[in-house]
Known about the structure:
It is a single chain. The chain is an alpha+beta fold. The chain has a domain at 7-195: CATH 3.40.47.10. The chain contains ten helices and eight strands. An eight-stranded mixed sheet has the order 3-2-4-5-1-6-8-7. The two termini are 25 Å apart.
Amino acid sequence: MANLQRVFIDGVGLNGPGLPNWAQGREVLSGLKPYLPSATVLVPPAGLPPAERRRVGVLVKLALQVAQEAVDNAQAAADQLASVFSSSSGEGDNCHALCEALAGDRLISPTRFTNSVHNAPSGYWGIVSRAVAPSATLCAFDGSFGAGLLEAVTQVKVERRGVLLVCYDAPYPSPLLEVRPVMQSVGIALVLSPQASAHSLAAIDVSLCDEAPTALPWPELDTLRGAIPAGRGLPLLQALAEGHGNADGNLGVARQRIVLDYLNHRQLAVELSPCR
């Protein structure tokens, strides 16, 4: 597969254990501060009407939280962005509740069903952002971050428009947890654009490769990367964070190659370079 033309990262959103947002996560991933594990903190999406805000589950909260942070950091118009949402397993809590209902009185809550579908975060993002641009929702098991990134980069180059990428995973309840042991919640979002702007952090090219995935230099964080599919994007964020250090918060990234998990024993190589 030939390399795709490079695109530009304009904004980042992050939430996970000990990485509550991009500003604090960047300091950890750059080595400026130690990693201190703590529970992922989620907040109800402020842009949703009160009824929907009360009903949404962990996955929607996580996805919308990192999506909004990435858009805010990029200073982008949310309603103008196409979007790609990617999760390895989808909404576990509602899936568990529906299975319990089917095994019992078979009375299915319409709200539960609505929130259980794989593209529910995308739908709620449309409500919050008022975006009417195309939105895709993917699932590629442990390769979901790489699949989402490849899809988003392709859309940027083909459609010549900005794309919001949102990758997220959260635990299932037992007994599903024993089959799919995703133990913590992690979300990563990127705003990608076809042209460099004043807010661009770095440029990337992507291609398929057969190299081993890039590991993080800290054992606890690398364990998180390997255990949570959405966390497979952390090496890319670390590369962005290493360029951080200017007083104005801009990134001066060095040229480097990061390899991310993908599918069928192939990996995704990301060539990172300065915007100009």
